[in-house]
Amino acid sequence: MSTITILGAGNMTRGIATRALAGGYDVQILARDESEAGTLANELTGSVSTGAFSTPIAGDVVVLALPYDAALSVAGELRDALNGKVVVDITNPVDFATFDRLVTPDDSSAAQEIQKAIPAAKVVKAFNTTFAGTLVAGAVDGQKLDVLVAADDAEAKAAVVSLVEAGGMRALDAGPLKRAHQLEGVGFLHMALQGQLGNTWSTGVKVVGA
Amino acid sequence: MSTITILGAGNMTRGIATRALAGGYDVQILARDESEAGTLANELTGSVSTGAFSTPIAGDVVVLALPYDAALSVAGELRDALNGKVVVDITNPVDFATFDRLVTPDDSSAAQEIQKAIPAAKVVKAFNTTFAGTLVAGAVDGQKLDVLVAADDAEAKAAVVSLVEAGGMRALDAGPLKRAHQLEGVGFLHMALQGQLGNTWSTGVKVVGA
């Protein structure tokens, strides 16, 4: 069976791991503090192993479930181990001090910056518009979650689309990796709208009517 | 009763006029070719007047229902007549030759470029993520349309929010006018996804679950 490795042990790891396990994947959770990976694993049902960032990566697909700055630095740190891997960037590089801008260059995106840090990996943008709670629930408002996926490598994109669909969600192909710029705009907006939507962080961005 | 002036006589004018009329507004349609405004007006039910771009603008809210390049040039052409008006930019400045980029600067947006051309008007970004057919229908997939609205001027934004709500849609406040950069990213993605969604152009982008 395929294994998904997730780096980080926070809410987004809980969400993505829940969907991957529901889809029949084995999950490996690696965290800076291995005990946090263990604590999260104890909440989950299915085939879950844990380790530290130094533990050999078991999955062909590796999700960076970390805030943008940490995702970028951990990707660089594990650069050799990520060679040839499908690396999923889920981040929204919001300037949390102002909540009024993204910290990435105007002509780039978090996904493209991470790709530059690990040029021998195949970076895929996904899961940046789906909140953790909706991933755990596996649905929003009784509807399938939409997961927008952008990547340059077709096989890498297909691997993430398979994960999305196995987990009971709908994958929408947003195009090449540079389209992450627009996807991160969607993620930023979705976060910025929470105040007027009751701050539940349980909403989903969907393309409805098709 | 309030009057909405719409510049252009294409599909988006049909959609926005239909919603405005449903909301009890008077609608004035002005087109380069006045006869096209008349033809469209004949399809609509309610208080509709027509004219050319040189006809005095009746509305306090003026919608530029034109492709981006035309919207920018017509705004400049009517600069004096638009002084003090609420001007609604609905465009998606997609490079239609490649469908792979936006033609606006990386650090700007169509709305901001139009604001520069008419500095004494109050530009509001709205309706760039809602397709014409769904505006005519007034709903998508049995749900209210979401209209994302961005503007710097609070009264101008409120006028557009009132129009949206009167027309039976949900307004979401996306923030200041510069957030048009992200809204235009949403519009671009929504258009780019049509191929894999059956090319019906009858879908809607919604925040569901709230």
UniProtKB/TrEMBL annotation, chains A, B:
<feature type="domain" description="Pyrroline-5-carboxylate reductase catalytic N-terminal">
    <location>
        <begin position="3"/>
        <end position="93"/>
    </location>
</feature>
<dbReference type="InterPro" id="IPR028939">
    <property type="entry name" value="P5C_Rdtase_cat_N"/>
</dbReference>
<dbReference type="GO" id="GO:0016491">
    <property type="term" value="F:oxidoreductase activity"/>
</dbReference>
<keyword id="KW-0560">Oxidoreductase</keyword>
<dbReference type="InterPro" id="IPR036291">
    <property type="entry name" value="NAD(P)-bd_dom_sf"/>
</dbReference>
<dbReference type="Pfam" id="PF03807">
    <property type="entry name" value="F420_oxidored"/>
</dbReference>
<dbReference type="InterPro" id="IPR051267">
    <property type="entry name" value="STEAP_metalloreductase"/>
</dbReference>
<protein>
    <submittedName>
        <fullName>NADPH-dependent F420 reductase</fullName>
    </submittedName>
</protein>
